[in-house]
Write a structure and sequence with these properties.
alpha+beta, two-stranded antiparallel sheet
Length: 176
């Protein structure tokens, strides 16, 4: 298991992306907008770590080793901001108008099995009864964890990148 990505909801995605680029060497790999039925939108950046040599590289090219010779695969960063009264801007406003980590996504082999296991063991409640699927991508969100205060995503990818339809469904599933 590894951290796949860390997602931030912020008031200004450009400022956040600039911070991650300057502080950690991340690069924007994808930009897209999600339009909701109520006329609001979320604007998103997917950022890749500096270990990724080019945007076409596979995950194996991201692997580096630390000083102990252990393998390390750095997570992607996902940043979103939103139009007024959108899912994203309302979430940010509830937290005092300051952006924050919305969720941490963990790569798992089988999202549905992991969901069942977590529910059975009382580890989490989920925002959907079943995972959200797209070509090469299966995902689900937990509700905010009462112990850590964090939303967790379970994800399984067989392709790289994010799927706009899945991101939209996940955002809608976790709107307050």
């Amino acid at each position: 298991m590894r951290i796949d990505h860390i997602a931030y909801r912020v008031t200004n995605k450009d400022s956040a992306a600039d911070f991650f680029a300057k502080a950690f060497g991340y690069k924007i790999a994808d930009k897209f907008e999600i339009n909701f039925e109520d006329g609001t939108c979320a604007q998103c950046y997917a950022m890749v770590p500096p270990e990724k040599v080019s945007l076409d590289d596979s995950f194996s090219s991201w692997i580096s080793t630390n000083h102990n010779g252990e393998y390390h695969i750095p997570p992607e960063i996902f940043i979103s901001d939103g139009s007024p009264n959108s899912i994203v801007s309302n979430w940010v406003a509830k937290r005092g108008g300051t952006g924050a980590i919305h969720h941490i996504a963990y790569q798992v082999d089988d999202v549905e099995a992991a969901m069942s296991d977590w529910v059975e063991r009382g580890l989490a409640k989920f925002t959907t009864d079943t995972p959200i699927h797209a070509d090469g991508l299966t995902q689900c969100f937990t509700e905010e964890n009462p112990i850590t205060g964090v939303v967790y995503e379970l994800i399984n990818r067989t392709t790289k990148g994010f799927n706009i339809s899945n991101v939209k469904d996940l955002m809608k599933s976790s709107s307050d």
